[in-house]
Amino acid sequence: MEPLGNAMPNKYGEELIRNARAIAAPGKGILAADESTGTIGKRFESIGVANEESNRRDLREMLFTSPDIEKYISGVILFEETLYQNANDGTPFVKMLQDKNIIPGIKVDKGVVPLGGTDGETETQGIDDLGKRCAKYYEQGARFAKWRAVLKIDASSGCPSELSINQNAYTLARYAAICQENGLVPIVEPEILTDGAHGIDVCCAVTEKVLAACYKALADHHVLLEGTLLKPNMVLTGSQGAPVGVKEAAYLTVRTLSRTVPPAVPGITFLSGGQSEEEATAHLTAMNQVEDIHHPWSLSFSFGRALQASALKAWGGKKENWKAGQDAFIARAKANSEATLGRGDLGAKGESLYVANYKY
Fold first, then answer.
1. Residue 247 is a catalytic residue
2. Which of 189, 226, 278, 338 is catalytic?
3. 9 φ/ψ angles, rounded to the nearest 5 degrees
4. Consecutive H or E run containing 299
């Protein structure tokens, strides 16, 4: 056995590395279908659909049974309810995905709570029983996990504070170590919200600082980096700030990552952060066209709203619209698959999906 270096001994080590690499495979990305019951209720309300278990199951089944989904999607993040659900024909969703060589994942955090001593900043809860839950999720078939930390930029109040950065980095690292002890590839997600009027230079600096703190914490917790993935925000101006061009934002995002993310990490799967479907895809395309900055990790997607918004509207909660919903979903999945290979339209716009102080 080769020396472990700083990483802790782990009986799942080879499996973790294999699954992380599979999720980060070229031309593929992650469907984030882990919306909480409350969040999916808001989306159903926009199309006049009742927030009932049967409707939540039908939406997920429509997505998971889309023809050729396995060509573009390597992993699906599930909400706990969905991890244990069956399709209408009795097939467990986990088996349905596995049969398509799509790796099932699970959202394991329990949402954010106020972080004492800060100006409205937060920390994420769910660590206390995480080991037991991870073991249970692994037994059910999950092979990766997601934990979302939330940070905000507000120059007037000094956010993100050192306390917020360090507390969230520490918790992400603790979560990652617990996941790996139980066979789950941890997706590390330190999301810096786009709320505010700050410029892209501020987002650059803050993102560098946050990611540097995260990887210091991951090293302190002896996490096996080859068996992890990163899900960061893209480097963009604030939602009320003056926008910059797609190519500039892409360049600065890749530069920020090159300064902070170790080469051992196999893949970076971006969150869309409320961008329109088309904008998120354009930025991903542009990042994969950057040639003068070395990036040893794959640059891919872990989109929820930016993969589902059109599909949700096309479906409208009606069984007779399944094909229309699937066609809309596959169109976005294929476009994002192309974007991971540097192919696509950099001028696309579309309807913004931004929600202030986004929670899910």
1. no
2. 189
3. -60, 140
4. strand 298-303
